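Render this sequence as a predicted structure.
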Amino acid sequence: MRLSADRINETSPYWVIPLDEKSFRIRTDYGVVYRIGFYEDTFLAMSDAYHFYIGNANRKHAPNDPKLLQTVTVIIEEFFRQNPLVMLYICDPRDHRQAARNRLYKQWFDNYIHNSDFHLYSESVEFESVDYYAGLIMRKDNPYYDEVVNTFHKNVANLPAQMVKD
């Protein structure tokens, strides 16, 4: 999979700079630098599944920025245009804002104009007094829909046992 920065930059309000075939860097009007991209999945252990990530690279305060949402949306649209079947996310718990991140992702999804083409599943699990949030977004026409959903729910439920082994 190779995401096209040229195609993304045609409609993105922020200029995206490719870091590699699946990740980008952007700088917002507020001076916040983000790394946004995808890496191949190991959670579901299936092909055509990728994790989405967005990270505040310079750790500056990030105000509510509609242009960031538009940019992320354009990047995700390019991801699904390439026809991967599954996109996953796990909300980083290091700063204890994982629940807020999960709510934000759900809000972004609910407000997405084409959300009728996709389905979002969001789960949480507690491990050692920390709540972990994971999400699955996939096209509703995914030929492996039921298998993917069942595997996702099973793997989230088994996440604490897996963390103990690691």
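Summary. The CA atoms of residues 114 and 135 lie 18 Å apart. The chain is about 35% helix and 30% strand.
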